[in-house]
Amino acid sequence: GKRKRLNSSVIYDSDESEDSDILVRKVFVKRHCIMDDDESYEEQQPDKTCPTENVPTTRKQKVLAKLKELVRQSAARRSCSSVNCEDSNSEKEIEEEPLCDLPLTPSEGSETDSDSMKDFIVEEEEDDDDDDGDDNSEHKKSENQPHQKQLNTSNSELLAHYIPQLCRCDHYVHFKRIVKAFLINAIDDTFLRSLYDGTRRKKYAQDMLLSLHYLDDRFIQPRLENLICRSRWKDRYKERVDCYPNVRIILKNSENMCCQACELKRYCRFNVLLSGKLYNSKTLEVDDFMSDDKQVLKVGTVCANRTRVYHNLKHFKYKLYVDCSSIAKLDGVEDEPVKDSVERLFSHLEESGWIQKRYNDLEDYMDDADSFQDEK
């Protein structure tokens, strides 16, 4: 039917006239739609007898219609991935008709809601036997744990193979490798040189080279740099302490003078006596040039203590090699193979506690360097 819309109009009193003195109230009529067909108008009017029955069903119908539309779209996507697009379009046309004509009741609405929501929940794939699902999941977890451990160990082994510096072992293990390398070089004086130039490629030799680098780069050198950067030593004094492997610090009478280490005005009461031959820091080969040269320097108390701590760390490796060489010479066995001699000497030093004692000395020197205070 046709709908007629009335504009807002003003209704005047029927008795209105020009000569009347009575005030007339204007009445504004609200806009509303007038249906020509009374039946269609009555259909729009909600039934006053049961107002609570139709409203929930209409809302639920809308929700279910939207859910069915989403289900249809998701089914269409799955069908497009498995078959051609033409087949999927034909399936859509077939599915649309029965879905629209389904009766919707409150009792059936809950079932369709649960069924439609299943399409939007992604579940893990299960085995064919549903009864054994829990057992299988627990079994899989137990199987994955050792597999994960195996992956972690294999990764660490690969890193250690390609980047040997990442291989971690106990500090005492590094120290024992160094002692064994020094014993070999004491018998065969070309071992350390061939080790550093890359001639020896066997695993035991590479492990010894790694331990030597570990001693220099991790134990000694960082602490030496820390002692120098926190001091006021002059470069000339530092070079002298680096060159001479032997030092004696002797207490003398106090003198008010410039310290020969930092060149500051101090009460200097210590004489630092430096002596010994210059040597190569890697191969430990000795240079006989000016072998009897000595240096005597007057320093203050703080510089004397710093000299003692710095010198102990700087020349520890060389003194350890000198002691190993002396032990190898005292053994006096010349016809025995090098490997057998080294193993026998090393076992004797380890059983007697000599290696452990020298390692404890290194730890004491490092602790002294770490705890040394700044100059005042």
UniProtKB/TrEMBL annotation:
Q: Where is the DUF4211 domain?
A: 119-284
Biased composition regions of type Basic and acidic residues, renumbered to the chain: 136-146
Q: Where is the composition biased (Acidic residues)?
A: 122-135
Q: Which residues form the Coiled-coil domain?
A: 1-60
Transmembrane stretches in the record are none
Q: Output a single Gene Ontology CC term carried by this record.
A: nucleus
Signal peptide annotation: none
InterPro entries noted in UniProt: CCDC82, DUF4211
Query: Looking at the record, which segments are called Disordered?
Result: 38-61, 81-151
The protein depicted here goes by the name: CCD82 protein
